[in-house]
Model the fold of this input.
Amino acid sequence: MRFFGIATALAVLITTGAASAQTLNDVRERGFLNCGVNTGLAGFATPNDEGDWEGFDVDYCRAIAAAILDDPEAVRYRPLTSQERFTALQSGEIDVLSRNTTWTFTRDVSVGVDFIGVNYYDGQGFLVPAALGVESALELDGARICVQAGTTTELNLADYFRANEMAFETIVIQTSEEGRRQYLAEACDAYTTDASGLAAIRITLAEPGAHIILPDLISKEPLGPVVRQGDHQWADINRWVLNAMILAEEFSVTSDNVAYVAAESEDPEVRRLLGVEGDLGSQMGLTADWAYRVIAHVGNYGESFDRNIGRDSALNLDRGLNALWSDGGILFAPPMR
Amino acid sequence: MATTTATGISRIWRDARWRGRAFQALVALAVALLLYGIVSNTITNLNALGVSTGFDFLGQPAGFDISFSLISYTPTDTHFRVLLVGMSNTLLVAALGIPAAMFLGLVMGILRLSGNWLVVRLAATYIEIVRNIPVLLQIFFWQSLVFLLPTVRNSISIGDMAYLNKRALTLPELQFEPGMWIVALVVVISTVIAVGMARWRKRAQERNGAPAPFGLVGPLALIALPLIAVFATGVPWTYDFPELGRFNVTGGVQIPDTLVALWLGLVIYTGAFIAEVVRAGIQSVTKGQREAAGALGLTRNQTMSLVILPQALRVIIPPTTSQFLNLTKNSSLAVFVGYPDIVAVFAGTSLNQTGQALEIIMISMLFYLAVSLSISILMNWYNRATALVGR
Done:
């Protein structure tokens, strides 16, 4: 239970020794990564028919495990509600949080966590039944809206309706599954969360066509992985695994051709990325082929996107802002040198 | 004597009383050191993690909405206001739930012993089913039933005065005019008269043995005087009737579905436990008491209210207190149906927006502790008042 989860995490905070900066060693000794993911969001993190976790956010956990342990399966997933996530990270229950979490000032500065990058640029939208006849979020005056507890969306919602002088009522729910239940029972007129999350909920409805996502996005939601504050080496590893996946797409290195590229490429930056040249891996405590492992086991950013939420998935989300900068998006990883 | 030659310290050491105090002081010191260790360790850890600490966040604007509140609340209010809203909403559930659960438990407990085969079986079935299913599932069940009600646009209209739908039951709101003060005063006066009459009649009966006259004066005063006052002041209230809008019903008083589901779940669950407590209490009164009352010519109802229940109460009250506490604490399950109690809004949303888990969980625990202790103190006081007096 949620309250219980926070309580045990607090107990850990109270009783353990001072926070260690040894996450990498801890993971190596333990032999697996503790990764915090969503309790269930189609395309981002859901258990499949065999009970194995898969999704866009899950791929990131797998990439970290691949970089460190050369085994994408060496991950223990910890499904977390939006409320539990930061406490779980603070207390050391998880090593990294990969759970569509919005990067904001307060969270970065005063919650004791560090955001290491953005793996999905999103915005908050509204899902409404088509039968409601609403075409814009501005027509939602007086509506009752379901929203997940402890999210930025909860705050954006209040801001948006206040700014537009509209009345509203919220039903605050814990998980997207519970939100779906309330929305389907018409306990709320609209469901609000990040547009990607709405798309994920929409395709799990019995009749997706009977529900529309309103065109208005009312906020910026840069979603990304989060690590505990205070362990710079660990933050660097997480930041550069994400960057390596983006750079691999930029250089057209995929899980299929990575062995060939590593052997044949003349491009110095590609050679540095794949560990053929230089010592970038050892600078952050990893082997030279850390990025090679990530790409071989999990694939580059584009592969992961297409497979889980993009054109090869049921969600079929457009790359949009999340296309590479060279393709008209804003995905731009710093150089590998 | 040895003591005359001993030094001051050894004399104290041999004194059992002083020795006991010394050990107590040592234990107290050890506990204090342990607490100090926990607190300082926690603060060090939090600082090392870069988590801000302290209670300044209570003055920060909350920025989120709360769907149901007894006190006025807007998103620009502070987290402290959120705490107040959460506390009042939790207390509302307890205040509505405890009397209802007590009533249900009392009725079911007595029915279970009624002797009528069908009634006994029905009561027993209710108790056994409800008592053995987790209360959270029951709350979900009641919420699903509420979800079966029509949507807002198809609200069931009760004479265009009240609307029932899956969101809420909306009733006309009474809006009082100044004349209401006079009515309130008259109600107080008539209550005093009625209570005074009842006491006088009881004493008169104890003195004379026969039931005292003027039995109707008290109840009559209780009903008639306020009625006269209402009409004399020209019915000092108006109604705010709800109206059906596009998304929702506006105006009136809204009782949200979440509160109804939570209330039903808690009352029906706790009522079953109280029913068993009541049954145990009644059965603890020996058969002889009932037979003696019958021999004195008391009716069945008189036997129950004058002989059995007063003796059963001293058995019933202490475990019932625990049930009241359980109901109050179980109200934190509100978070699963979306009712904004203290755990949902303060230990939930506020906690997540500010990240100050330790402070917020501590405040929430203190709140539940204070409420539970208050209920216990009240019930202990009532227990002493009803305990058998040795004569």
